[in-house]
Amino acid sequence: MIDEPSVACPYCGETITIVVDTTAGRQSYVEDCFVCCQPIVLDIDVDPDGALAHVDARPENG
Length: 62
Ligand SMILES: [Zn+2]
Fold this sequence. Notes:
Layout: E1 2-3, E2 6-8, E3 15-17, E4 20-21, E5 27-32, E6 39-46, E7 52-59
Antiparallel strand pairs: 1-4, 2-3, 5-6, 6-7
Bound molecules: zinc ion.
Zinc ion is lined by residues 9, 11-12, 14, 33, 35-36, 38.
C-alpha cells in the first residue's frame, strides 16, 4: 500500500508530502527537503495490518 503523508520540514517548517510504501514495514530514511534542500530523517511506523501509523521528521544531526 502506498500512502502520502504530509510532514513539516524540521528546518524551514514547510509542509512537504512524502511517498511511503507501507508494505516495506517500519522504516527510516533520509530525504532532502525540496524547499531548503536539507536532509530530513524520516522515521516511519507501520501498523501490523499495513496501515501507516506514524511519521516523524527530524534534523539529520539533531
Ligand atoms: Zn525545508
